[in-house]
Amino acid sequence: MSRNHASSVLALWLGINLSAVSWAEEINYLENPVVVTASRTDQAAEDTLASVTVITRTDIERQQARSVQDLLHGIAGINVANTGGPGKLTTLFLRGTESDHVLVLVDGIRMGSATSGFSEIQNYPVELIDRIEIVRGPRSSLYGPEAVGGVIQIFTRKSGKKGLKPTLSFGGGSYGTINGSATLSGSSEHAWFNLGISGSDTNGFNACKGSFSAGCFTVEPDKDGYRNISGSARAGYHFDSGLDVEASFLHTDGHYEYDGGFINRTKLAQQMFGGTARYSPFEPWRITLTMGRSNEDSDNFKEKMFMTRYHARRDTISWQNDITVTPNQLLTIGTDYLYDHVNSTEKFTTTSRYNWGVFAQHQISLAAHKLQLSLRHDDNQQFGSQVTGGASWGYSLTERVRLTAGFGSAFKAPTFNELYFPGFGNPHLKPEDAHTVELGATGRFDRGNWSLNLYETWIDNLISYNAATFAPDNIDKARIQGLEAILNTEIKGWLIQTNLTFLNPENRSKGANRGNILPRRSKQAFRIDASRQLGNFVVGALFLAEANRYDDLANKQQLDDYVKVDLRAEYLINSQWRIQGRVENLFDKDYETAAFFNQPGRSFFATLRYQP
Question: Where does the TonB-dependent receptor plug domain lie (predicted)?
Fold first, then answer.
């Protein structure tokens, strides 16, 4: 896309000036939501000392997102690597750390596979999600292992207004895509519930353009389809005694085809169920008990021939005590238990392990200062004691501008695949250790808010694939430097959300790769999302630009930079019905986020929604 062409398109968007009630005034997308992930306690987003992004249900529908990776792609600090389109393996790199350095929670329950170490987010049903909280920076001192780059917590849909409320959606588009969803929610004085079902089916396109010696190590020029059926349930009850209980359930079943010499079809089932009880024995003390289990089952085939099966189970128990010491001091003390178990047709020498953690956090507000201190001790069955800590300080320079500084340490135990997978694992791996320092500034003004965050992370014993030994190995050191700039505002009726990321994820280990860029991380990324209501129409666009990256430690396989533009529009038929349309990759850009794996070309989708 030429610079003149891009300027003309931008001028056309901003030049529209029709009289209509401001959509951003009718629905305030610049509000200050309450978040819980940053400190494990309720806080307004602008009061947290961490770098936080919240994606609400309104954002999901406004952007017409068709997947979780749609929502996360280009968000500040996040790189996405997808291997061939919808439903295919999608990994996240948060602030330049590894794909298994992101802790993913669903309704407070730890997700992700104990075998691979990362969560299969491409399977999560976007229509059954209420909101997503993204916390950037280490959180091991609160959550234990995995939270090296940050935490992403997904909340399933819940009830809002009293009485019964159904919602429906149905749509389809390019690549033979059909999708639909239905939810039913209800609430009374003491109880509430939400039930949901979602499904998607697509013929897809050829996932991989590799060869027998590169990429997917096969040549299968066919369409690689995907289908998914998911269901969720979430309910709660408030007792007169003050006890609050909540239970949630999520099941997603995905069947996807891809290109592979040994395996090219997978049935992947993910399931989570958990419950939370909250009670205050007396006013300053609040107890929260959470228990849950997540499962991931993978059956793998070569065409119709069964090849392998993996079952990974994670059991979690958390007991948290929040004690209000004074109106300006909150003390949090708790303990977490995590148990991982693996069962598969491949013979792992070790199939289970536990992790016990105890943690404490002290949040203090004093005049213009705010302080958050945290300390945690983990006892890992395989790797022994691990101590992590965090300290964050905020100073309100004015009523609208605040400065922040922070330090945090984190650790990550090797996954079962990295340690024990037959013919691949390395049982001599050490846990990864990391520490991060960060400086930031946040501000708000009449029509929006902004933030700047500068950070540096050092990771010792970083685990990566070693081509010389054909196995994972600790590569000594990595240094990641980054800058994130975020601006959310409204200009003449246009809601504009934009962010800019600069990243320098450098391999600092000894040897030939010293100074190289870590794989699949883009050094620069820019995203701008703009929306406006024009009478009964709502129009919007997403502009995403990412610089080149490398697909290997040696930096020999380069992925070109790219610019992608999506357009969308919707028509409000009445207060209950609306029809939406979206054009993805408007200029049909050919790009890759993982070497040899194709991404969708120009494509069209339409959706009809009913929401009273």
Answer: 46-151
